[in-house]
Amino acid sequence: MDMLFRNFRYFIKEGFSNLARNRLMTVASVTSVMAALVILGMFLLIILNVNHMAYQVESQLELKAFLKDDLSGEQIQRIGEEIKGIDGVSSVVFESKEQALEKFKKQLGEKSYLLEGLEKDNPLPQSYIVKVKDANLIKDIADEIKGINGVDKVSYGQDVVEKLLGIIRIIRIVGLAIISILFVISIVIISNTIKLGVFARRREINIMKYIGATDWFIRWPFLIEGIVLGLLGALLSVGVLALMYGYTLDYVNSRLIVFNLLPLSDVIKDMALYFALLGSLIGAIGSGLSIKRFLNV
Amino acid sequence: MIKFINVSKKYDKGIIALSNINFEIESGEFVFIVGPSGAGKSTLIKLLLKEEEPTSGTIIVNKKDITKMKRKEIPYLRRSMGVVFQDFRLLPNKTVFENVAFAMEVVGAHPKEIRRKVPMVLSLVGLSDKADQYPQQLSGGEQQRVALARAIVNEPSILIADEPTGNLDPDTSWEIVKLMAEINKRGTTVVMATHAKDIVDAMKKRVIALEKGNIVRDEARGVYGYAL
Ligand SMILES: Nc1ncnc2c1ncn2[C@@H]1O[C@H](COP(=O)(O)OP(=O)(O)O)[C@@H](O)[C@H]1O
Ligand SMILES: [Mg+2]
């Protein structure tokens, strides 16, 4: 334990002295990693918000099953039971012809006089309002309900929902692809920086091998160097992203009404934590890769 | 202590550096490996240090078959051997003291132990007054003495030297070899590859002579036996 602690002091001292020795490279690679992570973070924020939007869309999603007029109360009840029995349905609420008219009136507001006199011969159909658990299931569920005896029509704004879900899916895939690419780019940036340090010290590494240093003893200072680079780049990028996201929120929330973006405070705490981990991981992988070749003596 | 059994080493392009080598070195011996340039001396030492793998055969060091050794165990094998090279291989940005101390740091020695031990070996090699100097401020002979101090500070059972006097003038070479003999007298087995004829002839130690990868002679109190 004592020895481990002693070694660790050596590793940290050596790691930081590498950084100080190549000051220009340190600044250059921290900046590059920061830039890469800012872009990565932008896509991450987009994905998070798209997920948030998808959740909002999904929770607002409902379909309406319009019933034929000439049904008995018993038949209506049976249809309700049947819909409830379908997989993926979360709730079923009956809306009578009268309720439908009331709702319509409310929607029209001051123009509701247009509907006056309709009470006696109400043209609006009775319906079941069905909520689903997963937006992706909505089409199948609609088809199934359509097949039930006594159901006249089913509507759920097919076009809009399907397009929206399609767009969300594409944004997720593209976003993840770009994030992966930037992840690799960041690793390469750090790996190249560490490689310079390793190369400059290859004689020293060689000597250490002859003295009987273990691979880990040689590796640790470079790992620490890489982790510090990754961590610095990550934390700086979180700062930049927080500023950028703050401005975006001000801009978007004053214009967009249908959806609201995730608030800054929700996003940034998680982001700082994940980026710290991500930065360390990038640094560790980057330096691990660059020292491997030099250990084979 | 050290045993080569039917050891051969073939490099790429079919170069045979060692072919079917057999010898045994007992604990406490002082052995010269001699032979012209390209005879295979350095290859033999690289095999001992496990810097190269033999193409065939078995190498035993301290009762262990090092050809079957895992990569993880190599550092511990090397800790049982101190090494000295022709080009000294000191760290230029560390002082004499720090260079020697470094060998102890690498194996995780306690700082107290380092402060006690380093001055001892520096005095053994006669460099007590140069402890705070940097390698480039020293002569070649002095640098090689630092390398010797570093090689023995962890008290290895074997001291290995590949042409340790190759870069030194005759007088300085003698000082180094005398030091190695002194270290040998204290119980360390010494294996030294060289083509310094005068030294080998005068020391009257065991000589293993290599030629084109073969042992052509193995004599207990030998001489170099070649006209350089
Ligand atoms: N890494 C290598 N790759 C290919 N050939 C090598 C390598 N190292 C040494 N050799 C060859 O092996 C032979 C023995 O070399 P070496 O062991 O260095 O001899 P010595 O130390 O006695 O001068 C020489 O022919 C040399 O060219
Ligand atoms: Mg040689």
Automatic annotation (TrEMBL), chain A:
Residues 62-154 form the FtsX extracellular domain. The chain crosses the membrane at residues 24-48, 170-199, 220-247, 271-291. It is found in: Cell inner membrane; Cell membrane. InterPro entries: ABC3_permease_C (IPR003838), FtsX (IPR004513), FtsX_ECD (IPR040690), FtsX_firmicutes-type (IPR058204), FtsX_proteobact-type (IPR047590). It is a multi-pass membrane protein. GO terms for cellular component: plasma membrane. GO terms for biological process: cell division. It holds the Pfam family FtsX. Its main location: membrane. Keywords: Cell cycle, Cell division, Cell inner membrane, Cell membrane, Membrane, Transmembrane, Transmembrane helix. Residues 177-295 form the ABC3 transporter permease C-terminal domain. The keyword Cell division applies. Belongs to the ABC-4 integral membrane protein family. FtsX subfamily. Part of the ABC transporter FtsEX involved in asymmetric cellular division facilitating the initiation of sporulation. Forms a membrane-associated complex with FtsE. PANTHER family: CELL DIVISION PROTEIN FTSX. This is Cell division protein FtsX.
Automatic annotation (TrEMBL), chain B:
Keywords: ATP-binding, Cell cycle, Cell division, Cell membrane, Membrane, Nucleotide-binding. It is a peripheral membrane protein. Gene3D superfamilies: P-loop containing nucleotide triphosphate hydrolases. The keyword Magnesium does not apply. It is found in: Cell membrane. GO terms for cellular component: plasma membrane. GO terms for biological process: cell division. It comes from the Bacteria. Belongs to the ABC transporter superfamily. Part of the ABC transporter FtsEX involved in cellular division. This is Cell division ATP-binding protein FtsE. It comes from Caldanaerobacter subterraneus. The gene is ftsE.
